[in-house]
Amino acid sequence: MRIMKVLRLPEVITISGYQRSSVLAKARTGEFPAPIRLGPNSIGWIESEILDWLRERMAARDASAKTVNSGMIEPASAPFPKKRRQEVDRADEAAAAGRQRPA
């Protein structure tokens, strides 16, 4: 028989990276595992459900990375949008020529 571990909110926050309000809101909408009632004033989460949710998030990330790397989606080649890149290039040229960048 496998023993199930129940996680309390501070542990769920640590594992998920979400804040308290986000954990509860996402559980309400079904985007996160629902808690179980432990008593009249306490709730907890089944550890395996939280870890399964985390594995699903990792799989979605990995699938997304494969789509980007397969050439279906072109990753950005420059760190700036084209217009901003042109501004940076002009500023670099002005600095190289010994002139100050216009304000």
Characterise this structure.
With 103 residues, this protein is mostly helical. It has a single domain, classed as Orthogonal Bundle (Multidrug-efflux Transporter Regulator, Chain: A, Domain 2). 54% of the residues lie in helices and 11% in strands. The chain has four helices and three strands; from the N terminus they run βααββαα. Strands 1-3-2 form a three-stranded antiparallel β-sheet. A hairpin with a 2-residue loop joins strand 2 and strand 3. The mean pLDDT is 83.
Essential attributes:
103 residues; mainly alpha; Multidrug-efflux Transporter Regulator, Chain: A, Domain 2; three-stranded antiparallel beta sheet; 3 strands
- Average the pLDDT over all residues and give the rounded result: 83
CATH topology: Multidrug-efflux Transporter Regulator, Chain: A, Domain 2
Low-pLDDT residue spans = none
Portion of residues within helices: 40-55%
* Count of discrete alpha- or pi-helical segments spanning 4 or more residues: 4
CATH top-level class: Mainly Alpha
Strand count = 3
- Give the overall shape, derived from the CA principal axes: elongated
H/E element order: EHHEEHH
Strand content: 5-15%
Please name the CATH architecture.
Orthogonal Bundle
Provide the spatial order of strands within the biggest beta sheet.
Answer: 1-3-2
Q: Which structural category do the helix and sheet elements fall into?
A: mainly alpha
Distance between the termini: 71 Å
C-alpha Rg, in Å? 24 Å
**Overall tally of domains:** 1
